[in-house]
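User: Please fill in residues for this 160-position structure.
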C-alpha cells in the first residue's frame, strides 16, 4: 500500500506541475528516451502524472487484482530503471552502483520486486484455487456419504 500511496502522490504532483518543473522532468526523460523529444513538456508531465495516478490507484484499490496491479507496477518500474541505466551520471563508472544523484532512481528496483511479487502471488493463488476447485468437484462426484480416500470396491488400486 505504501508504494501505491507514494506513486499516487507523485502523480498528483505532476498533474499540477508548473512549466519549469514539467520542463525538468521532460528533459531528463528525453535524454533516456529520445522519442519523447516530440512530446511537449507540459503534455509529458500531465501524461506521466495520469499514468502514475493509474498505477498508484491500481495498487490501492482492492477491486484491482494482484496480477493487474503487479503488471502495471512492473511496467512502471521498468521505465524508471531504464531511465536510471540510460541517464549519464546516475551510475558509477563501469557498474550499476548509483552515484549520489542516482540513489533516488536506484531504489526503484524495489518497485520492480514488489510488482513481480504481486504477479507471482496472483499466479500462485490462481493455481491454488484451481486445485481446490478440482478437489471439490472430485468429492462431489464421489458423493457426500463416502469418506475421502476409501474405495467402494475390493479391487486393488491401479498403479500408473
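Assistant: Residues filled in for all 160 positions:
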Amino acid at each position: 500500500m505504501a508504494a501505491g500511496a507514494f506513486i499516487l502522490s507523485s502523480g498528483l504532483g505532476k498533474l499540477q506541475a508548473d512549466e519549469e518543473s514539467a520542463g525538468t522532468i521532460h528533459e531528463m526523460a528525453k535524454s533516456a528516451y529520445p522519442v519523447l523529444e516530440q512530446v511537449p513538456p507540459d503534455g509529458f508531465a500531465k501524461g506521466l502524472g495520469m499514468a502514475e495516478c493509474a498505477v498508484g490507484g491500481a495498487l490501492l484499490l482492492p477491486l484491482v487484482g494482484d496480477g493487474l496491479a503487479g503488471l502495471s507496477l512492473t511496467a512502471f518500474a521498468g521505465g524508471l530503471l531504464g531511465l536510471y541505466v540510460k541517464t549519464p551520471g546516475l551510475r558509477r563508472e563501469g557498474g550499476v552502483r548509483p552515484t549520489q544523484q542516482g540513489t533516488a532512481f536506484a531504489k526503484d528496483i524495489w518497485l520492480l520486486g514488489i510488482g513481480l511479487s504481486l504477479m507471482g502471488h496472483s499466479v500462485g493463488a490462481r493455481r491454488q484455487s484451481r486445485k481446490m476447485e478440482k478437489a471439490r468437484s472430485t468429492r462431489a462426484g464421489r458423493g457426500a456419504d463416502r469418506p475421502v480416500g476409501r474405495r467402494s470396491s475390493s479391487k486393488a488400486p491401479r498403479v500408473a
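For context: Helices lie at 2-15, 19-32, 41-60, 66-86, 103-106, 109-142.
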